[in-house]
Amino acid sequence: MSTGKSIIKRVYVPTYVKRLPNGERVTVPGHYRSPSTR
User: Out of the domains of life, which is the source (predicted)?
Assistant: First the structure.
């Protein structure tokens, strides 16, 4: 897709609303997180 030289060190997560199993809603502000290693 892009050049293999570029390494993504941080992934930006935009603001979103997270729904918990108990019906509670939590607003998660935009932040950076390390990319998930799978």
Answer: Bacteria
- At CA 30, angle to CA 21 and CA 3, rounded to 5? 110
Amino acid at 38: R
- If you search the block for the tokens 């979103």, which residue do you land on? 16
Cβ neighbours, 10 Å, residue 18: 9
List, for residues 3-23, the tens digit of each pLDDT value: 556 666 788 889 999 999 999
pTM: 0.44
Query: Quick check: 28 and 16 in contact, CB under 8 A?
Result: yes
